[in-house]
Amino acid sequence: MCLVDMVLCVDSTTDSWAVSLNRAVDHAAALRAHLAIIDVAALDDAVPKTDPRTFDLDMEARTALRGKQVDGRLIHDGSDGASWLDHVQASDLILASPDDRAYPAVPSFLPTLLRSSGVPVLLEPEPAQGSLPGRRILVPWTADRACARALHDCLPLLRRAEEVTLLHRRSDGHAPRDCVEGVSDHLARHGIRSRVEWTEGADALDSHELTSRASRSGADLIVLGLGGPSHWPQPIIPGPIDALLHRSQVALFLSP
What we know:
Blueprint: E1 5-10, H1 17-31, E2 34-39, H2 40-43, H3 52-67, E3 72-75, H4 84-88, E4 93-96, H5 109-116, E5 121-123, E6 136-141, H6 145-153, H7 155-158, E7 163-169, H8 177-189, E8 194-199, H9 207-217, E9 221-225, H10 239-247, E10 251-255
């Protein structure tokens, strides 16, 4: 699996899109991927197509893509009836902000994105580093469908990592070592070196535990599975994920 099609979601009614745009173009250049830049405000009819802010985004996008020799395009014309959600589903990875305030023109943008896109999402907090996150990756392993899907979706980034840590919770004083070591062996067959760490916490997905571990280990990316979020009560993000979105100072890779 390769990340050849990336999508960046921005809102031209804010001032934050310029930073997100340049960072996304750098990421696409690093992965040699196509980048579609989607103005969710324009596609949601929150601003007219003639709005000068849409024009500014168009010009900056063209300049940034040309400057880094990235194949890409700006999508801001919804005349064909396609919504921003229709466009993001035709991608390998969605780049977005973890802060819903970055999308004031589209109510409940982030819950809708995570619930309905069906595509992995990379959320980078502000201020974020310029380089692509994933030099040191933390993967909480809970031996379920959600984390198995996340591990598979994140393989392209795991292959680039210098360090991958599998965080596994001890259960009732007994750690299913074969289970998590089998995951480590699986990664090794993909050419990915990993190590296993254990937590005594009641919940391996506890936001405080994950952010503390990430801070101590220098991780710049946390990988999580959402477990089929289409069943979420729209437009609500479940508490543990929402807490992590607000607490984390490192990037999050969220798999549907």
